[in-house]
Amino acid sequence: MRYEPPAHHGLDVIYLDSHYLAVNKPAGLLSVPGRGPDKADCMASRVNLEYPEALIVHRLDMSTSGVLLMARSLEAQAAMGKRFEYREVEKTYIARVAGECPLAGNIDLPLITDWPNRPRQIVDHEVGKSAFTQYERLDYSGQDDVSRVCLYPKTGRSHQLRVHMASIGHPILGDELYAPDEWVEGQPRLYLHAQSLRFEHPFSDELLIVESLSPF
Q: pTM value?
């Protein structure tokens, strides 16, 4: 698939201090460079044009929009990396999914890379790594047969939210890897948005909520 990143119209910086910055990543843009010069344009490289010291802390899928946090020093990167590693960062996503999703629930399904078909991930109860997601339905449109849901991943596996929602029969709209064709055709994007990160600042212990409201 040819990489066609969205046009760059300037950074949407939603948080900035001497240690960290957060930007609103558009859908269709890689978080970090991919393989080959045609995939050099990414959120990290765009940030580095204005903040050359900025270092990646975590990643979002190319098709996912929303809050991406970066560190402004190696010390800050290491400190925030531990917050993610020890699951001390509360992540909230918004998605539009197929069908009438239950009002709330938990998904506890271990995941592993489907190597012959990577980057696809699959549920594997024997060798998969633990993956846990909480969700709640915000609203449902019977006309479109689409639910809008809030997702709270407690682990950070690759494609976790996409695989988990598809596994319970409610794939995310526009998901070319995991949704049936009828929920992909005609959709302008993957309807998954990283809306907020909530954590204690590693250097001030201040409780921070860095937020970018969902565009859908």
A: 0.96
